[in-house]
Design a protein that fits this description.
- With 79 residues, the chain is mostly beta strands.
- 0% of the residues lie in helices and 47% in strands.
- It is globular.
């Protein structure tokens, strides 16, 4: 688990589900898109603080997207 996590570059996975977990904040910049390819992949982001996505940030999967934060959640775009 990270204390805080800042995603500033694209993250992609075709091998499985992705879980990002931080005891502090999780932030996604406009260039920090997350893309999961393949059928039914789950993206999970858990933060002990806030989750903040830039307006142009995109989380994309054919499965579920789960966002959980103690603080506020600000969403850019999911699909």
């Amino acid at each position: 688990m990270f204390s805080s996590l800042a995603l500033t570059a694209a993250l992609s996975s075709s091998a499985g589900n992705v879980s990002l977990n931080a005891s502090g904040n999780v932030t996604q910049s406009a260039t920090g898109d997350i893309s999961l390819t393949g059928s039914g992949k789950t993206l999970e982001i858990i933060a002990g603080g806030a989750i903040t996505m830039a307006d142009d940030a995109l989380d994309q999967t054919s499965g579920d997207v789960r966002l959980q934060a103690v603080g506020t959640i600000t969403v850019g775009a999911t699909s």
